[in-house]
């Protein structure tokens, strides 16, 4: 069976997938968008590598490289996949992923657990206010419950006992990195560290607001930036096909 889509959106945080939907709806107006979801069980070891291998199995039937995109830890999985299987990826778009990919909201939470003497629920309530700001999209208790589930379901490399680091660096295919100027986790200086790894066709864009889930609060703005990035790549490909490089044979 062959797969037919232009864009593959990754979601390795099923409890938070609701916050992806406005962006995906906007993107789907101009592109064929597929979603790939990964959910680890409570008995399964937390592993980015396992998610990457399952994603590769899924994309074996794809006949051409695709635009890969993801937010947070889902973007980290996409980054890891793109580095291991570059022939499968036309471009990579990362939302709220720092140049040190291990900087996620889960890492932010575990750092706070080490510094603040309070219960898990109390700290998650504070984390909710930090991630979403004053404009809660849902009741605070519901958001706390979603974050609590994400700590258990997402393939995060962090725990109470250890904060992990992941390899820095870029990718061989065109890369777009998006963030928010008000993100308390992947804040602007962390985001701008990407510039030292960029190629000439890579792009960095910052949303003016929206905190960590800026793609939920500003879906049309984010979608337009992503579409602009893809249109530029398509235009470059047309030029390359129309004016192929001449090879001198001696």
Automatic annotation (TrEMBL):
<dbReference type="Pfam" id="PF12697">
    <property type="entry name" value="Abhydrolase_6"/>
</dbReference>
<feature type="domain" description="AB hydrolase-1">
    <location>
        <begin position="50"/>
        <end position="224"/>
    </location>
</feature>
<dbReference type="InterPro" id="IPR029058">
    <property type="entry name" value="AB_hydrolase_fold"/>
</dbReference>
<dbReference type="InterPro" id="IPR000073">
    <property type="entry name" value="AB_hydrolase_1"/>
</dbReference>
<protein>
    <recommendedName>
        <fullName>AB hydrolase-1 domain-containing protein</fullName>
    </recommendedName>
</protein>
